């Protein structure tokens, strides 16, 4: 079920707008995105190189582009950890709470759950 921007009723001051939710659904609906989200849930955090090794059948550039897309729609985040045994700073990706929701509930249901959560937060904190 695709989201229709006109059918999305968001609270005032919503974190995401209807276009954001549409992009989130579009980005997450690819097989590569689902694979990345599942792998990050299983492994907690991975670098781009570790993801490339795990997704050995995917193109490096495709993985890079999909990571960027997933970050733009807030389904994953990138962090840097200078305190590792590696030379230089270790840059890694992790799932965000919206990313977990979309992964666990499915793309469409997960996006709708996020929208409902925004309504619940508005009700809770608007009083």
UniProtKB/TrEMBL annotation:
Domain of life: Archaea
InterPro entries with a match to the protein in the record: WH-like_DNA-bd_sf (IPR036388), WH_DNA-bd_sf (IPR036390)
Protein name: MarR family transcriptional regulator
Species per Swiss-Prot/TrEMBL record: Haloferax prahovense (strain DSM 18310 / JCM 13924 / TL6)
